[in-house]
Design goal:
Length: about 220
């Protein structure tokens, strides 16, 4: 038996896709406060204003208020961002990889930092319940510690003490690989394809780096 644990954001699913989903919901919310009836064209313009602000490094929510001449609280927009039901899905590549692992009866775990509601909405939207059992999902707000805290990883060692090998697949050298490297896990890093929200830092000590970098998630990235 082998245990394969994954990061969620920018590993199994691109966080930028979640942002796009949230911005659309926020645009819909804001437009309803300005107009009783909203045309698809005006809604799309409001959405594009936020995206443009984000990519320019500006406050997307303030820019939306300015564009629509509104004074809605930023906290309202943030609440939607964190709590909405996202319209996101797994890539065909990632889905095929998870299905292949499931067919081999590997134990699959999820170790993700973030808010409980937000991460669970992602898990539901992505259909990850097909691959990860409830007891094998670690969300930092629920678990009480964030990566790279050792407990987030040793949980799986205590749950599956007779596993032949433990593997962690993530994307963020700042926090994903330090602890599993220390615990002598196999570590695999997924390279940024240009869409990651948080850019990867390769100027860290060796112990922060995965033992192997890959460009894609597929069954041939490691001798499973």
């Amino acid at each position: 038996m082998k245990v394969i644990c994954f990061d969620l954001d920018d590993t199994l699913s691109k966080e930028i896709d979640y942002l796009h989903s949230a911005y659309w919901e926020i645009a819909c919310f804001a437009m309803k406060h300005r107009d009783k009836s909203t045309s698809p064209e005006s809604l799309n313009k409001a959405y594009r204003v936020m995206l443009s602000a984000y990519y320019s490094g500006e406050n997307a929510f303030k820019c939306l208020n300015d564009f629509l001449d509104l004074e809605l609280p930023i906290s309202d927009y943030l609440s939607i961002y964190h709590n909405h039901q996202p319209k996101i899905k797994l890539s065909e590549e990632t889905l095929a990889f998870l299905e292949e692992l499931k067919s081999k009866d590997y134990v699959m775990g999820l170790i993700t930092d973030g808010r409980s509601i937000q991460q669970r909405h992602k898990i539901k939207a992505l259909g990850l319940w097909r691959f990860f059992r409830e007891q094998d999902i670690i969300i930092s707000e629920e678990f009480g510690t964030e990566k790279p805290t050792e407990a987030n990883y040793t949980y799986f060692i205590s749950q599956y003490p007779h596993a032949q090998e433990y593997i962690y697949i993530g994307d963020n050298p700042q926090k994903d690989f330090l602890t599993p490297n220390y615990l002598n896990w196999q570590t695999i890093g997924l390279l940024d394809d240009g869409r990651n929200i948080h850019k990867q830092d390769f100027n860290l000590p060796k112990e922060y780096m995965p033992k192997k970098w890959v460009k894609h998630l597929s069954y041939d990235i490691y001798p499973f």
